[in-house]
Amino acid sequence: MKTEFSFQNLKYDMSASLVVFLVALPLCLGIGLASTGRTDLVFSGIIAGIVGGIIVGGLSGSSLGVSGPAAGLVVIVLGAIKTLGSFEALLMAGVLAGAIQLLAGFLRAGIIAYYFPSSVIKGMLAAIGLTLILKEIPHALGYDKDFVGDFAFAQADSHNTFSEIYYAIQYNSPGAILISIVSLVLLILFERPFMRKIGLFRFLPGALFVVLTGIALNALMAAINPAWILRNDHLVQLPVASTAGEFLSFFTLPDFGALSNPQVYVTAVTLAIVASLETLLCVDATDKLDPYKRNTPTNRELKAQGVGNMISAMIGGLPITQVIVRSSANINAGGRSKLSAMMHGGILLLSAIFIPRFLNLIPLASLAVILLMVGYKLSKVSLYRTMYKLGWEQFLPFFITVVAILATDLLKGIAIGMVFAIFFILRKNYKHAYHYTQEKNHDGEIIKIRLSEEVTFLNKASIQLSLDDLPENSKVIIDGSHSVAIDHDVLEIIQDFKMQTAPNRNIKVETIGIRDVALSSH
């Protein structure tokens, strides 16, 4: 299975691109509104989605990753607009951030991705799945106070993830519930094997039928029970241009005069770092979900993201990252090559130009159910069972990452999970720095300490404690013959023990495979 374009998989990629488009549309609009705080700038999210699909999708080496505006950058972008004084100044910072990412790609900074523990990445996937479920329930019930795509526990509307569900149940919309139930039944049916035997349904995704059914049901309610009709906040709200000139007005140029403002550079560095970290995390997660187990070249991904962010900011778009929700939707919909990501960007562009009024008939309840299914597939019970069977050293960082993301937001939760994962790695490293054996013969008690292949400064404490605990009048053999590298700090500890501590306790020390030159340099 190739990473690049694969026209032999066109039917799969076309079907998947439609699903990704339906998932991306409300996310782009929701993040666009939340990031700018202005309805006249909501199209900035669509621009980012278009560029993320067509440009980043084309340049990236990821087979199934999908890029676009990310909820993790909302707070940074919104704060930066206030600090810099204008959206145009933010765009200038976005151009610089893209240039920094491009440089990072050439400097091979993408290697950072290989240092994320698997337990944390899987915890991130499970947490995003749970978050999607919890966050989309209010939209499915017709209570749309929070923007689609928000992953933070504390919300801008003064609610949190759980209180939002409480108010959604209390102030639900019967029309939204009806559409959600029908949509959910349709999606479950489309998962059944017998549906794939029907010729039409082999190519057209269930998500498309769910959306069309939602539009039809909402229109039907106008005739049967007008009180149930979904309007305004409960529908997609894509800006509609009456003329070509009005459509072009949705695009904004950056303020190059803002280059004289030092805060622009601070914002650019912040955006570059956060966007790159979120991208690399999603790259790792997407590769784990890829059924063909392909690996994304991370340095190339940073370059693609850099170019994408520069172009997006130059035409009025929000900052871009690879996004796990869209990427996982692509995978679940059967996408096979990067063509699906590129086509979803093209569909976003064409639909924004030619059919915005039709798109504005789509109920958010229908789209919420699609995202609910994506969330369920990311956070299946089987994943928790598998991680539990791997033992506490894998399960605890995984579970803590899940809880931390649910309680805070994506990046903070990942950071907390990383701390615990590193603790368990250090703990394991501490225990396995060497092999300790103790035996008796006619010469008395002999203790053998065989050092592991790699002995770093992280092993100092455990080796020091073991040497301190050696009994007096014994003999110890420290064997480094199997070690490829022994850190200088550890060599100093061995030297100090051999030359000073051991003679005072009548302990005979023999070293094997430990270079005398390194010891004598003490």
Describe the structure.
- Mean pLDDT is 89; it is low at 517-522.
- The protein folds into two domains: 7-373 and 380-401, no CATH class; 432-520, STAS domain (Transcription Regulator spoIIAA, 2-Layer Sandwich), CATH 3.30.750.
- The protein is α/β, with parallel strands linked by helices.
- The chain contains 21 helices and eight strands.
- It has a four-stranded mixed sheet with strand order 3-4-6-8, covered by helices on one side. The chain has a two-stranded antiparallel ribbon with strand order 1-2.
- Its main location: membrane.
- One of its GO terms (cellular component) is membrane.
- It is a multi-pass membrane protein.
- The chain crosses the membrane at residues 12-35, 41-59, 90-107, 114-134, 171-190, 202-224, 265-286, 346-376, 396-426.
What topology does this entry show?
Blueprint: H1 10-36, H2 43-59, E1 67-68, H3 74-84, H4 87-106, H5 118-140, H6 161-170, H7 174-190, H8 206-224, H9 244-248, H10 262-289, H11 298-314, E2 321-322, H12 324-332, H13 339-354, H14 356-359, H15 364-378, H16 381-389, H17 392-407, H18 410-431, E3 434-441, E4 444-451, E5 454-455, H19 460-468, E6 475-479, E7 485-486, H20 488-504, E8 508-512, H21 516-520
Parallel strand pairs: 4-6, 5-7, 6-8
Antiparallel strand pairs: 1-2, 3-4
Helix pairs in contact: 1-2, 1-3, 1-12, 1-13, 2-11, 2-13, 3-10, 4-10, 4-11, 5-6, 5-10, 5-15, 5-17, 5-18, 7-8, 7-15, 8-15, 10-11, 10-12, 12-15, 16-17, 17-18, 19-20
